[in-house]
């Protein structure tokens, strides 16, 4: 009977040790996951992520004209005019997901038919 009691005590101590180590490893895994998520958020803030809608890519005069027309039609949407040799780009909006950008694109295409979604 004493051997049986000793054996059960041994099994219980091993079982408790396993559950304790699993709980600690899960806690450590959760901390690692949280740390990675924070690093990703920091990276995204510094490098920019998401999508914009590009209305035009070409000559300066036409780009400025399209930007002005867009600002009149949609005064609440952010517009960006940029130059990368040899062309000017008119991009609008700041959308976190492709789905949001595509939804906005459907509305914008009613008045600006050449618009496309581009990553930031």
Automatic annotation (TrEMBL):
A Pfam entry, by short name: SPOR
Keywords linked to the UniProt accession: Signal
Signal peptide stretch: 1-23
Transmembrane segments: none
InterPro entries for this protein: SPOR-like_dom, SPOR-like_sf
Top-level taxon of origin: Bacteria
Residue stretches making up the SPOR domain: 48-118
Name of the protein: SPOR domain-containing protein
Protein species of origin: Tenacibaculum tangerinum
Source lineage: Bacteria, Pseudomonadati, Bacteroidota, Flavobacteriia, Flavobacteriales
């Amino acid at each position: 009977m004493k051997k049986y009691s000793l054996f059960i005590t041994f099994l219980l101590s091993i079982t408790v040790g396993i559950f304790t180590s699993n709980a600690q490893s899960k806690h450590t895994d959760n901390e690692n996951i949280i740390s990675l998520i924070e690093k990703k958020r920091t990276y995204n803030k510094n490098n920019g992520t998401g999508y914009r809608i590009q209305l035009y890519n070409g000559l300066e005069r036409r780009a400025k004209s399209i930007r002005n027309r867009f600002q009149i039609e949609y005064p609440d949407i952010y517009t960006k005019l940029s130059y990368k040799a040899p062309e000017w780009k008119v991009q609008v909006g700041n959308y976190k997901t492709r789905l949001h950008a595509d939804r906005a694109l459907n509305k914008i295409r009613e008045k600006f038919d050449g618009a496309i979604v581009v990553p930031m």
